[in-house]
Every structure is written in C-alpha cells, then in structure tokens.
C-alpha cells in the first residue's frame, strides 16, 4: 500500500472506531482510547519513529473526525473532552478543512533546483532561456537565485541533461488558487479567504496531513432524536458502492436514516431550468445570427475569408452553475465571469427544498464526494449536514451492513439517465442539451478540472466574453472526470463510471421543455 493508500486506510479506521465508540453507549471513554487501541504497547510501529508519535497523529486524526480543527488544539485537551464537546455541539463550522501539523512533513520549499547532474556545458542553455536573470554559472555549475526565479521552468525544459528539477510541495502544487502555504513554523496552513474547498490538497498530501472536519457525530446524534432524518444522495454515489442504487437505498435506511432521496431528482430540475434560461439568453442572439448568415449567403459570402460578423453580433455564452467548487472560485477569485453564470440553482438546492416541503421538521443530510459541498450545505438553510462517501462507508462497516445482500428499495420518483449522469464530466451540458428540442444549437465547451491553467482559460473567456470555437454552453467541473473524481470517492474513475453507466443506461430520458 502506498502512502496515500495508507493515509486513507487510517482515516477510514478512525471513522469506524468513532462510530463504534458512539454506538457503544460509552462514547467519551471509548473515543479517548482510540490511539491506544490502534497502537497498543509493544506493537511494531508501522509509519513513524516511535509509538508516541503514532499515537499523537492518531489523536489529531480523531479530533478532526470528531469535527474539530487541529489548529485550535493546545495538546492538553483529552479526546474524552473533545468527545463531550462533540455531543454538546449545536452548530457546525464553515471551515471544512484542518491541517495535522504532527502528520505534516514540513516539505522542502517549492522551488527550481540544479542537481549534481549539471555538466556546466558551454552553451549555457539554462542561462540563455531565463528571462529573469535567475540562472548564473559558478565554478562550472549552474546556480539558481530563488529571489529572482519565477518558477517558469524554462530552464528545466532547456537542460539537455535533465539536471534541473522542480521540487514540489504536493499540497501547494495541487491547489489551484494558492490557498495552502507553509506558515512561520514551516508547516502547511490554509488561507480560508482563498480556499475554494476543492479538496485537492487532501488527496495530494502523501502523509494525509490535510483532513476534512467530519460531521459524523452530529449526524449520529440526530439519528437518535425523534426527528425524521433524510439522506440526499449525490448522483455519483452509484459508482462508489457494490450492488444497485436501490440496494444502496436499503443500506442507508438500515444504517439509521428514515428516507433517501436521489439528488438526481433535483438534477432533472436543474437541467430543465438551465435549458430554459439558456434558451432565453440565446434566443435574441440566434435570431441575429440567422439573419446575418442568410444575408451573408445571399451575397455570396461563402469562401470569402475577409467576411466577419458585424460588431453588434458578438457571440455570447452561458456557464453552468451546479459545481460547488466552481461556485466558490467565482465568489472568491473570478467575479468577472459572474454575468455569464446561470442563475439556476444546484441539484442539491432543489432536492433539499423538496425534502423540507414534504416535512419541514426533517433533518437533511447530503451524502457527497467532495469538500466543496460542505461549503454549499453551510450556505443553504435546507441542508443540515453533509457526509462524504468515506464516512458513509465507515458507517456501513461499523453497523455490519453488506449492501450486496440487501433487497432493492425503489425511489418514489425515478430520475432520468441524464440527471444520474451529472457526476461525470460533460453530463451537465448533455442534460441541458437533451432538455431542448433544438439540441443542435447547444455547443458545449468543457473545463475538465480546475487547476492554474484552466483558471487562466476561464479568465480569458470572461475577458473576451466568448468561448473558443463559438461554443455557447460552458460546463465547469472542479474535479477531473467530474464528481466521480471527487476527493472522498472510494472507487477509481474507470470502475466508478462503469457502475454508473449500468444505472444510466437503464434509466429513462429526461423530459424536454416546451
């Protein structure tokens, strides 16, 4: 098992132990014992220098699993006290991530570095290509001045001996908005004013030092109350667990929920509403374009390369609005694209609204593949809690639920194949397209994952006011592959998509709008 796999395994084991501790009837004491049960006296230490370091890191992971921030821990508070505080808690935090300094490696600074492979060649290609004067040659070897280096990597590409390398800090390198950096102590720290909750740092860190702050205890408490607890499951969930989505509904009910709604039900509403909005936004443009094209053809315009559109016919577009990470990016870093963003609400918004209308006193729990949905849930009064797939999997294990052995439980309302495919890149645009009678007018442009390059592309699109190749529907997915590539998914994308396709291919088509 690699470092990332080991970190995931540890998170999962701790979640299972927290749930079992809660179900034991002696929560506080059993929570306190988690580090000692996981690393008993005399046990061979698997990862760190000593058993005490191992226990310290497990304690921190447990604190995050109980829903608290490690940054606020003074090390004197016991896990028993944290468990008590979790039971007493009535509100959740809007800061969804926390960094475990005990687990953080304090990686070397992110920089460009000349290795001993440098041959001091006469041509000096590294020095020649550097536009910032950062590369000099001393004693026959190239040296990089970090204060001048812009990390453009031109020298890395120019070196014929591959002697210059980029030293990366995985969490920093993965963050598309530079929200995670080393603080004065040399350990990673998150700037929440910049953070878009994409969760990429949680996956990138090979030591598992970046954690989601779990709401599992809050959800377990609610399950024991008299209120009806409704699970709202994201479309991508069908690719994460064995068995059918109908068996999964049975499993979720058996785990303590009173009812389960597909968020794909809300995705059908999102697709139809976005299609109506797209149609309205594009209607005037389409009429102008057709008139211009007809005039152009009648005047023999085809084949004349100097013909251009009139100034008042600038091509416009609309961008989808259902990805929570993308919405956080717009709010914090990309306000210039806001005029082009659909006003339609997300599938979660509509599904939570359906649940609350049916039972205003119910407690809604969105089951999600990503951190960003925690941010969306915090901002939506109809969403009470958010649980990720890792936490749901831990709940099944703790309660010994075998999904594949259960009977199917049907949904009150069946969702369309397009809505159930919302969690795959291109699925949202296809849903909007399938909702329209004039499908050919929809020309999608897909941003498959947010990173520094794709954000630059979005800025360019916003500045120009148009997409490449005259595309008019811009779909943006924060995670590569879509929600099936989210930070808290359980299956690799290939397996997840295959399972999801089985459900999609056996579902009905979306209804077209008038």
Give me some keywords for this one.
alpha/beta, 40% helix, 20 helices, 514 residues, Alpha-Beta Plaits, three-stranded parallel sheet
How would you sum up this structure, described in words?
It is a single chain. With 514 residues, the protein is α/β, with parallel strands linked by helices. The protein has 3 domains: 3-105 and 180-214, no CATH class; 111-167, Alpha-Beta Plaits; 215-292 and 311-514, no CATH class. It is 40% helix and 11% strand. The chain has 20 helices and 15 strands. The protein is flat, with a radius of gyration of 26 Å. The chain starts with a helix and ends in a 10-residue tail after the last helix.
Give the count of structural domains: 3
Q: In terms of per-residue confidence, which ranges show pLDDT below 50 for 5 or more consecutive residues?
A: 300-315
- Kindly report how far apart the N and C termini lie: 54 Å
Q: Averaging pLDDT over every residue, what do you get?
A: 90
- Structure annotation, total helices: 20
Biggest sheet, spatial arrangement of strands:
10-9-12-13
| Strand percent estimate | 5-15%
> What is the alpha-carbon Rg in Å?
26 Å
The total of beta strands comes to 15
Outline type:
flat
Largest sheet: 4 strands, parallel
SSE-based structural type = alpha/beta
- What fraction, in percent, of the residue positions are helical? 40-55%
Summarize the helices and strands and which ones pair or pack.
Elements (H helix, E strand, L loop, with lengths): L2 H21 L3 H6 L1 H5 L12 H15 L13 H10 L8 E3 L11 E4 L10 H5 L5 E4 L2 E4 L9 H5 L5 E4 L2 H5 L5 E3 L5 E3 L9 H5 L5 E3 L3 H8 L5 E5 L11 H10 L4 E4 L1 H35 L19 E2 L4 H9 L14 H12 L4 E6 L3 H8 L5 E4 H10 L18 H4 L6 H9 L8 E5 L3 H13 L8 E5 L15 H12 L10
Parallel strand pairs: 9-10, 9-12, 11-15, 12-13, 14-15
Antiparallel strand pairs: 1-8, 2-5, 3-4, 6-7
Helix pairs in contact: 1-4, 1-16, 12-14, 12-18
């Amino acid at each position: 098992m690699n470092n990332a796999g080991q970190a995931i395994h540890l998170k999962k084991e701790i979640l299972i132990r927290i749930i079992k501790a809660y179900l034991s009837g002696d929560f506080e004491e059993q929570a306190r014992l988690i580090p000692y049960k996981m690393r008993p006296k005399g046990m061979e230490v698997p990862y760190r220098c000593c058993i005490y370091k191992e226990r310290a890191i497990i304690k921190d992971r447990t604190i995050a699993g109980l829903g608290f921030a490690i940054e606020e821990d003074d090390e004197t508070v016991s896990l028993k006290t944290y468990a008590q505080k979790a039971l007493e808690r009535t509100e959740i935090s809007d800061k969804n991530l926390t960094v475990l300094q005990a687990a953080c490696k304090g990686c070397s600074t992110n920089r460009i570095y000349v290795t001993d492979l440098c041959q001091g060649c006469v041509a000096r290609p590294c020095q020649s290509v550097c536009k910032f004067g950062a590369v000099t040659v001393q004693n026959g070897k190239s040296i990089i001045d970090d204060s001048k280096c812009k990390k453009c990597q031109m020298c890395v590409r120019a070196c014929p001996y591959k002697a210059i390398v980029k030293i990366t800090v995985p969490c920093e390198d993965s963050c598309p908005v530079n929200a995670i950096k080393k603080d004065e102590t040399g350990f990673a720290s998150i700037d929440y004013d910049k953070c878009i909750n994409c969760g990429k740092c949680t996956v990138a860190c090979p030591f598992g030092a970046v954690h989601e702050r779990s709401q599992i205890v809050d959800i377990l408490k609610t399950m024991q109350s008299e209120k009806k607890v409704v699970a709202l499951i994201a479309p991508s969930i069908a690719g994460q667990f064995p068995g059918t989505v109908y068996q999964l509904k049975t499993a979720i009910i058996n785990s303590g929920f009173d009812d389960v709604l597909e968020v794909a039900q809300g995705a059908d509403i999102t697709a139809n509403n976005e299609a109506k909005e797209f149609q309205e936004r594009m209607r005037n443009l389409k009429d102008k374009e057709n008139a211009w094209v007809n005039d152009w053809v009648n005047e023999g315009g085809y084949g004349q390369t100097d013909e251009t559109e009139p100034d008042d016919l600038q091509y416009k577009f609309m961008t989808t609005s259902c990805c929570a990470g993308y919405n956080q990016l717009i709010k914090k870093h990309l306000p210039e694209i806001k005029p082009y963003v659909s006003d339609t609400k997300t599938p979660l918004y509509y599904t939570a609204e359906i649940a609350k209308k049916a039972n205003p006193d119910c407690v809604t729990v969105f089951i999600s593949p990503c951190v960003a949905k925690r941010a969306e849930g915090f901002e939506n009064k109809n969403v009470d809690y958010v649980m990720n797939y890792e936490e749901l999997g831990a709940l099944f294990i703790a309660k010994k639920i075998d999904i594949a052995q259960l009977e199917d439980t049907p949904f009150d309302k069946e969702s369309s194949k397009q809505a159930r495919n919302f969690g795959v890149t291109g699925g949202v645009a296809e849903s909007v397209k399938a909702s329209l009678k004039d499908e050919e007018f929809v020309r999608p442009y897909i941003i498959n994952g947010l990173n520094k390059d794709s954000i630059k592309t979005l800025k360019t699109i916003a500045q120009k006011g148009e997409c490449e190749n005259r595309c008019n529907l811009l779909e943006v997915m924060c995670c590569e592959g879509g929600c099936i590539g989210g930070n808290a998914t359980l299956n690799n994308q290939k397996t997840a998509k295959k399972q999801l396709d089985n459900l999609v291919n056996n579902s009905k088509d979306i209804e077209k709008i008038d």
